[in-house]
Design brief:
Helix content is 49%, strand content 30%. The longest helix is centred in the N-terminal third of the chain and has 47 residues. By secondary structure, it is α+β, with helices and mostly antiparallel strands. The protein contains 4 helices and 6 strands; from the N terminus they run ααββαββββα. The protein has one domain: Nuclear Transport Factor 2, Chain: A (Roll), CATH 3.10.450.50. The chain has a 6-stranded mixed sheet with strand order 2-1-6-5-4-3. Strand 4 and strand 5 form a beta hairpin. About 3% of the residues have low confidence.
Length: 174
């Protein structure tokens, strides 16, 4: 009887520690999810306010912005150069998250997200990777995509074909 009691006591103790450990992990992810979500909201808010310095401080030094046009793949410095005139003229973008998902790597230093955004282009999708650098979440890669409802995809393809056929040939010839 004593062996059975010791065994069940051992199982109970292991179970409690497992539950507490899982709870701590969930609390950490919950805290980090809130931090990342706030960072992304503030990131979008800085763009809407045309606050160049604040907006670009959310990017890691080594980061990439991928825009809606197939030719728009910029490192941070190139994106800053491209965006500066828009910020100077206060003609920036205003994105508001409608729905956001955040996922974590096992090391808790990398996370990735996808979100649906309310924009001047209607619904867009923002997605990217963030890294915890010196205690702050920074954007490592951001991808902005225009969503296309399935019911109109054929019309959109027809509209862009003449422009993108040229680019397709250029890319194939490289």
């Amino acid at each position: 009887m004593k062996t059975t009691t010791k065994f069940f006591t051992f199982i109970l103790i292991v179970s409690v520690f497992t539950i507490l450990s899982a709870q701590q992990k969930n609390d950490k992810f919950g805290k980090d999810k809130k931090e990342i979500s706030k960072m992304l909201d503030d990131f979008n808010g800085a763009a809407a306010k045309a606050d160049f310095t604040t907006y670009f401080n959310y990017f890691a030094d080594e980061s990439t912005f991928i825009g809606t046009d197939a030719t728009e793949v910029w490192d941070k410095q190139a994106f800053m150069i491209w965006a500066k005139p828009y910020f100077d003229k206060k003609k920036t973008w205003n994105f508001t998250s409608l729905k956001r998902n955040i996922y974590f790597a096992k090391d808790d230093k990398l996370a990735w997200f996808d979100e649906l955004l309310d924009t001047q282009m209607k619904i867009c999708r923002g997605s990217g990777v963030v890294e915890k650098i010196e205690g702050q979440w920074k954007v490592k890669q951001y991808v902005l995509s225009v969503t296309v409802p399935n019911d109109v995809v054929d019309k959109v393809v027809a509209e862009k074909s003449s422009l993108e056929d040229v680019l397709i040939q250029q890319l194939k010839n490289k």
